[in-house]
């Protein structure tokens, strides 16, 4: 998965639990541009450095941005954690070119672990792990909590549906 590692699986499944959002997104973006297919699961348990209140204020400022003449033309403000991650990766890819568009098509992101991927081996990216990248004592918040605060309505549904998967994943 990581560039130069020689791993060239047909499809790599990454468990995003306790990974930092930007660091994971940059690694995934690089792999997508290199032609790798990437599936990211459990996006709601991804971490963002900075406390919840600070991140919520930042996201609410982003939600106020809109087109003056016709707001439905954009920007589109996603609330779901998987779509927030997708948009973060999109910002790291030249998505308006054919190469970038093809790279973005190779990315799939999900909340929880949906059925086709619950039996496959899931990777952990050490370069993006919170325990290795965030200094002890620094504040962080979970992407799912932030999404819940800004208008995502399925936090409890995902938590109940995928409660049994918490300790069943295979980690490399």
TrEMBL record:
<dbReference type="GO" id="GO:0003729">
    <property type="term" value="F:mRNA binding"/>
</dbReference>
<dbReference type="InterPro" id="IPR036899">
    <property type="entry name" value="Ribosomal_uL13_sf"/>
</dbReference>
<dbReference type="GO" id="GO:0022625">
    <property type="term" value="C:cytosolic large ribosomal subunit"/>
</dbReference>
<protein>
    <recommendedName>
        <fullName>60S ribosomal protein L13a</fullName>
    </recommendedName>
</protein>
<keyword id="KW-0689">Ribosomal protein</keyword>
<dbReference type="InterPro" id="IPR005755">
    <property type="entry name" value="Ribosomal_uL13_euk/arc"/>
</dbReference>
<dbReference type="GO" id="GO:0006412">
    <property type="term" value="P:translation"/>
</dbReference>
<dbReference type="GO" id="GO:0003735">
    <property type="term" value="F:structural constituent of ribosome"/>
</dbReference>
<dbReference type="InterPro" id="IPR005823">
    <property type="entry name" value="Ribosomal_uL13_bac-type"/>
</dbReference>
<comment type="similarity">
    <text>Belongs to the universal ribosomal protein uL13 family.</text>
</comment>
<dbReference type="InterPro" id="IPR005822">
    <property type="entry name" value="Ribosomal_uL13"/>
</dbReference>
<dbReference type="InterPro" id="IPR023563">
    <property type="entry name" value="Ribosomal_uL13_CS"/>
</dbReference>
<dbReference type="Pfam" id="PF00572">
    <property type="entry name" value="Ribosomal_L13"/>
</dbReference>
<dbReference type="GO" id="GO:0017148">
    <property type="term" value="P:negative regulation of translation"/>
</dbReference>
<keyword id="KW-0687">Ribonucleoprotein</keyword>
